[in-house]
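Re: your question about Vitamin B12-dependent ribonucleotide reductase

S., sorry for the slow reply, the queue was backed up all week. Below is exactly what I fed in.
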Amino acid sequence: MTETTRAANGRGDTAKSTAKNGRKSAGLVLERVFSSGVHPYDEVTWERRDVVQTNWKTGETVFEQHGVEFPDFWSVNASTIVTTKYFRGALGSPVREQGLKQLIDRVVHTYRKAGEDYGYFADAASAEVFEHELTWLLLHQHFSFNSPVWFNVGTQSPQQVSACFILSVDDSMDSILNWYREEGFIFKGGSGAGLNLSRIRSSKELLTSGGTASGPVSFMRGADASAGTIKSGGATRRAAKMVVLDVDHPDIEEFVETKAREEDKIRALRDAGFDMDLGGKDITSVQYQNANNSVRVNDEFMRAVEQGTDFGLRSRTTGEVIETVDARDLWSKIALAAWQCADPGIQYDDTINDWHTNPESGRINASNPCSEYMSLDNSSCNLASLNLLKFLRDDDTFDAERFEKAVELIITAMDISICFADFPTESIGRTTRDYRQLGIGYANLGALLMATGHGYDSDGGRALAGAITSLMTGVSYRRSAELAGIVGPYAGFARNADAHRRVMRKHQAADDSLRDVDAMGSSIHARATKAWDGVIKTGEANGFRNAQASVLAPTGTIGFMMDCDTTGIEPDFSLVKFKKLVGGGSMQIVNQTIPRALAKLGYADETVEAIVEYIAENGHVVDAPGLKPEHYEVFDTAMGRRAIKPMGHVRMMAAAQPFLSGAISKTVNLPETATVEEIADVYLQGWKYGLKALAVYRDNCKVGQPLSDGKAEKKTEDAPVAAAEPTVVEKVVYKPQRKRMPKSRSSLTRSFSVGGAEGYMTSGAYEDGGLGEVFLKLGKQGSTLAGVMDAFSIAVSIGLQYGVPLETFVQKFTNLKFEPAGLTDDSDIRMAQSIMDYIFRRLALEYLTFDDRAELGIYTATERARQVETGSYLPEPEEEQIESESLKSDAGDTVDTDAVEVEVPVASAKPAPSTAHTTSELFERLTGTSVDAPLCLTCGTKMRPSGSCYVCEGCGSTSGCS
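Result:
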């Protein structure tokens, strides 16, 4: 009998008896909040889609399923990822799932049946309300369970619902080999696990036989090879693992430097011609690449770092100090290794265990691979995340009441799942059923903050994040206490009752110290305070059903399922997004949260349009027309021109951490120029801010990363070429030739007004229609301004006649910002940052082809309106002919477009570059900077960061996140 079978056979009776013997009152009576009484499926419009997925590098079709059914408001990306990742049954077989209804029903019906079987509902009516409410929330993308639920629940497979596992290993060969075995089973199912190796004696200690111990780092080598082999075996997603070592372990320096040394090896092999890119055929020869490493530091060590004193490393068998090191020297080595290769991260041991609800049952020694779940050894946690943006009303207020109701329902469902769940090992199953750890969290925080006009790195943004997190966890524990009154507290509660209630009071005290900045945060905070009062009172009477309630996971694949703009607690990745279209193709669009944020900040429609157009062209808001500099922070992103500073990320984590049972999956990104000292300070500040864990990533610190095409081309151009025989050549001098304008030429004179300043522009053309001269009239004859404009006109005209392309002038002079600036009287150019900005935009519209203008992002009002209606700036052939006849005379003059009334859209979109396949690649193309992320091993597209993991927008594959 396998471990999985034994766990499955042993779980039913235990859970059933808990429900029966521990019940103190009738089940839950549920009322409708989201559903209307009509089945949720009958309230939406459904459509059939063809899901075809190809590898963009090879052109090979990797997935194809036709006629899948989804609501019409689900994006192509969401439906593609759900179809490829979560639909069960062999492709082409009758049992293959064909639509979202089947997927949701498979999961929700299983939850409802288990809830009825285990006594959670007062009656059948409440069970039906539970089913409809849960279905409505999933259907409308208000939340999602973690991936294992969608993989397994309601199928013939073991009903594994947990994404996060923590293992344990002792100082014996039997335990070490069992570690390899258990980890392998977890990886086989596509999940990840973490463990602490600090019980294994160091290489500086003796074995009972008299020999010297191998030490934990040597055993990491075998586990790493096993993980790499199983990971390449084609599981539902890549395996992930976390390895932790205590800072007082005698082998800590070897552990710290392990991956940095391997990075040096990667560089040497790469320089020798081996393929060392991520996924390369030779990278597998390098060790320790399949795990995240973290050092578990305690307060004693951190104080020694602050004071510059020595610190003792202790024997694993006797606990005696066997070596003394300089704390600051060791701290510098940790920071240097993180600077070199992003490992190790830091876990703050005393902080973690000070918030531990079950200390009588054991310490918290480790975490899951992404560092958000921290609990007892041999335990697991199932996760679910809410889409915060779905709770933002049309009037830009947060619907805290509906958010509360959603949290109550989701926590109930998550607890029910433990009753029927299977587990990879018997010990994990036993611990999970006894402590019932849950991990509710959220996604789209970054989008919510932007939409409500809050900067991510601002007091208001942090206060709002803290209030929402406090409300979520408070409501979760309140519902947990209510469930304890119905189906009994968790089995380990009696032993840990005092400690659990102490931690609840710590959460309540943190809520009391939360300072509101605005009315939105204040209203949410008031509900959170009320929830924590309920936690204390109800928990005192009933105990708690769950040892843990909340974490902040990276929400990789499920974030795409919910159509989230941002994942987990992360800010927006970039302001310009890559969007797939129904029927194929893709569009480059400005994040739709931006117009909403600008409206919230009080900008007029015309200004919003101009700002959105500017972002579409530039990818950032610096010098955007009409945007106040004090509002720039609202649009700060993880990458780009105004990237959020490292400590901005740390401060946001600190705002949420006191209201979480677990920790936060997040990596603090630093620029390539960051120093070792800066990384050391980030880690130090994480401890002072009370975080439980922290990881950093310095841009381009790893060798195994994809190079952009531009870099590859430059490398080729710079490569030395073989020397040739010397030859004598005639020296040829090239010089530009001026093409003078004909004596008689056609010209166009146009009046304009920019910010109230009026002027005239006369442009002359060659016989072929090309622009050859420009004359500007602004100000009175003889004035300084008139003289400067005459000189400028002559300079531009001579440049044009010597062959300088008009496109070059347009690139150089558009977006120049100086007064006068503002509204114009030109319906095609509603806003201008300066007269120069207006002049050269107008010249581009008059003399450049559509394709050339499209490259520059300059369109007429008619073209922008057409794009919103048809998805393309280009007119249909018949429409193009009509426009040509109506807008141009035989002489080539254009009609006065001021008389044409055109409704200009706020949104800005255009076809995505053919070289871009994800938002990461679009960002690189737009800004000219690289995104340091791996290529997806499934479909070949470039992934993007998601918490401490990476996620692929093309197919939904992740490096281990939920």
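DSSP finds 30 helices and 24 strands in the chain. The first strand starts at residue 46 and ends at 54.

Happy to talk it through on Thursday.
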